[in-house]
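Weekly structure sync, notes
Attendees: PL, DS, HV (note-taker this week)

Item 1: Glucose-6-phosphate exchanger SLC37A2
DS walked through the input record. Source organism listed as Buteo japonicus. Sequence as pasted into the shared doc:
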Amino acid sequence: AHPAPEGVESYLEFSGYRGLTLVLTFLCYTSYHLSRKPISIVKSQLHPNCSALDGDNYKELFGALDNAFLVAYAIGMFISGIFGERLPLRYYLSGGMVLSGLFTALFGLGYFWDIHVLWYFIVVQVCNGLVQTTGWPSVVACVGNWFGKGKRGLIMGIWNSHTSVGNILGSLIAGVWVSSAWGLSFIVPGIIIAAVGIICFFFLEDAGGVTTNEKDPEAVTSNEGPLSISGQSSTDHSDSPTEPAEEPEAISFLGALRIPGVVEFSLCLLFAKLVSYTFLYWLPLYIVNVAHFGAKEAGDLSTLFDVGGILGGIFAGLISDYTGGRATTCCVMLVVAAPMVFNLFPVTPVAVLFLIAMLIVCGALVNGPYALITTAVSADLGTHESLKGNAKALSTVTAIIDGTGSIGAALGPLLAGLISPTGWNNVFYMLIAADVLACLVGPSSAGLVLLPWIFKGSLLVARLPAEGRDGPQETARHRANCKALQPFASIRLAFPNDLLHIRF
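Item 1 (cont.): predicted structure, written out as tokens:
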């Protein structure tokens, strides 16, 4: 058989690297979420069996325990992206996973060491929250740097199901030992995440940067990685007399904030994650308290919310790719989610089938926008045209967006712990308000601000005459008018509005 042409061989090898990167990063972040989930499953057993958490104010104490992790995670996330741009991602990610496994296991060892001191669990949670910030910026940078924008929404929508898959596996694994030896509900996930981290250390390949062809978004090339898809391998390029391009500097924190759309989507994610993480940490306990299911049954039922999250993430990515409107997709799902969330209250054992359906629907509507913003939108903004090909911004942009979102993730469970003693209905009112605010402060507000400019620009473009019909002077005047609107076109890009797809 004849050997494949050199360009085809390079492309196949590059595709292999991309596929391996997708699989490994999927496993990485699945294990991250797998290690975070047990505490929500074990809460119903911690309350009666741990003297540090058996008081009448146990809900507030659980809120503080959740917040110890989430506040540390939110603070660490803003710093993590900066380190992620400057350190080898493989080392950074693998080291963080091994440390995450250690601190997750230490929480569970409190059971076997018979520790009943609240500060021990809080310190472990804080340390775990800090080291877990190594995960998200690293995996998004790895995937975003290997893939262009062509099918990014769909690819990352499917890939982002690792969040829900990890939550499901974490619930099921924790549920095995929740009633017998709850410490193993933490130790086993800790061992799993550390083992996956070691695997990634040996096999994960970081492309370092991707550029895409504007006319063909699928024509992806690696700037710094092992291959370059232009018909030659990277070693062939070394023989070229042209001097290598200067290594771009990592972007600063303030520079990343100036990238169009970063602030708006960060605020949107703050409220979206508030809702998602409130369900993540409190849904099993809510089902136990209100529907009077056992701890294992409540944990199993709560996985349906994550099943819906998988479907919602894929659906959001597919629709945003098809329409080109990431912001519009987020807004529609957030608006529909608000009334649907309230259907989860009240829940009774009689209405189990209705509960199952609503858990799946709410999971899709709540986690769909969250998944889209943290994956495809972050990757789009981190490789925005204003960066002029500097791929080193991706990790910092991802950290800013997810770090801002993590503030909401910390607030949600804390507020739920404070509000739930007054009635679960008040918790659901808070969640509905957060969904509405996510839509108002995020992409939709930008669209409303710029609607007049969009309509004005569209009229000018529509009235642009043919040169042979109205004469060259008239044509030049109209073209000058359109050119005058270019600054407003750039402002339109600064706000992630895609209600109307009109370009100047």
